[in-house]
Amino acid sequence: MNTADSDSAAGTSVEIDDVQSGALRPRPVPYEGKFVFLRVEDRHAGRALMRRLLPVTSGGLPGADRSRDAWVSVAFTYQGLRALGVPQESLDTFPQAFREGMAARAERIGDVGESAPAHWEAPFGTGDIHIALSALSSDTGQLDKELERARVAYEDTPGVQVIWQQDVHQLPTGRTTFGFRDGISHPNIEGVGLPGSNPQEAPIKAGEFILGYPDETGSLPPMPSPDVLGRNGTYAAVRKIHTNVAAWRRYLRANSSGAEEEALLAAKMVGRWPSGAPLALAPEHDDPELAADPHRVNNFLYRENDDRGYRCPAGAHIRRTNPRDSTIIGDARMHRLIRRGTTYGPPLPEGVLEDDGADRGLVGVFLGAHLERQFEFIKAEWVNDGNFIGYPGEQDPVAGHHGGTGSLTIPEKPVRRRLQNLPSFVVTRGGEYCFVPGLRALRWLAELEG
């Protein structure tokens, strides 16, 4: 088995080929994809499905063989592992957040009001989702080929039912429904052999993302038992988020004196310009040339040149969700995630300020070895509060649930600006906590007896 070695001093190597491709591979650009949720009627059907899916799954990172530039990943909810007949003594070793599920912890992560589970799209939060399949590729033909192999596997397995599907795709603009380039940042993970997107970021311990390796505390994260089930797995918070693009545009228009100021205000809220150029490097205007350079677009920190947020406000979306070296309460390295954002639905035509009723937004997948101190911490402490940056009560201007009463502080000289009456620009349509096993673990699940 191939491994990727970190520097000899660290002595850590990750069994890359046993880690499902969807866990560590950066999202391709451009991309097409699909999510399929399955319900398993009995354990024997679930195990038979796993045996049929094993040839469809893959591990490792992108290689020279571009015919494998498409991959299918398999993940399970807690109810799904139960449905396959995983012994209770093993189920009890999973973390509480995973066992309870996202819906039960909605208030903790800010899914309240119109984003509360009572309003979620079925079957999210019902316990009926057992297996989540995701497929991604930069090539539609390859994607269709992999999806067909997966479809044959689950359609030829009696006792397995498709209960939800969602196509995702890169919009023709190459940007999100809000009009911003996405998928720029990827952590530098020790022992993986895949460079992070920020050359200035020191490698982060593999155990922050993959089970079975030391994390930033120097310890092994708690891992499900037996070891074959837990090792080389990770957890995924899967979320469907509707974006209120018309409300976003109206707010920017109402709080700006012209197109140039409107563009700057949007960038201050996001932390990047539409091209992806970061405010930390391009504080005055968009810089598509900088954004197109993979060696520069994410090559920045905050403390030396922008600790007070005059370029990129401390409350901007990308700075909240990844503060880097900013002066904050706490240690940002303890809360890093791998983020996979994929767009669904049609774009709202340029210049339209009224909602057209279409469902559009993103399906986000947030990967890490610690659900509580990564995804849940970021949502509760960084997205939904501002204590850590000295602005108590201020939420993420883009991802927060404001309800018309939100605010954002933008440092300026001589007097700072404070945006008021922010509406909610996003609505949670559903979410699930999933476990993404390693490939050996998938075989173990397929071979369960009893």
**Largest sheet strand order:** 4-5-3-6
* Cα Rg: 21 Å
The biggest beta sheet, please? Answer: 4 strands, antiparallel
Secondary-structure element string? EEHEHEHHHEHEHEHHHHHEEHEEEH
Number of helical segments with 4 or more residues:
14
Which class of secondary structure composition applies to the elements? alpha+beta
Count of extended strands: 12
Strand content: 15-25%
What is the helical fraction, as a range of percent? 10-25%
Mean pLDDT: 94
> What's the shape?
globular
Low-confidence stretches: 1-10
Q: Kindly, what is the distance between the CA atoms of the first and last residues, rounded to a whole number of angstroms?
A: 31 Å
* Number of individual domains: 2
GO cellular component, one term: cytosol
Cofactor: heme b
Family: Belongs to the DyP-type peroxidase family.
Region (Disordered): 1-25
SSE order and pairing:
Blueprint (H helix, E strand, L loop, with lengths): L3 E2 L7 E2 L6 H4 L7 E9 L2 H11 L16 E7 L1 H6 L4 H4 L4 H5 L30 E7 L2 H16 L4 E10 L57 H4 L3 E10 L1 H10 L4 H12 L17 H4 L11 H4 L10 H5 L16 E7 L16 E8 L2 H13 L22 E5 L6 E6 L3 E11 L2 H8 L4
Antiparallel strand pairs: 1-2, 3-5, 3-6, 4-5, 7-9, 7-12, 8-9, 10-11
Helix pairs in contact: 2-14
Description:
Belongs to the DyP-type peroxidase family. This is Peroxidase. One of its GO terms (cellular component) is cytosol. The protein is α+β, with helices and mostly antiparallel strands and 450 residues long. The chain has two domains: 4-235 and 438-446, no CATH class; 241-431, no CATH class. Helix content is 24%, strand content 19%. It has 14 helices and twelve strands. The chain has helices spanning 21-24, 43-53, 78-83, 88-91, 96-100, 140-155, 227-230, 245-254, 259-270, 288-291, 303-306, 317-321, 371-383, 439-446; strands at 4-5, 13-14, 32-40, 70-76, 131-137, 160-169, 234-243, 338-344, 361-368, 406-410, 417-422, 426-436. The protein has a four-stranded antiparallel beta sheet with strand order 4-5-3-6. Strands 8-9-7-12 form a four-stranded antiparallel beta sheet. The protein has a two-stranded antiparallel ribbon with strand order 1-2. α2 (43-53) packs across α14 (439-446). The longest helix is centred in the N-terminal third of the chain and has 16 residues, at 140-155. The chain starts with a strand and ends with a helix. The relative contact order is 0.18.
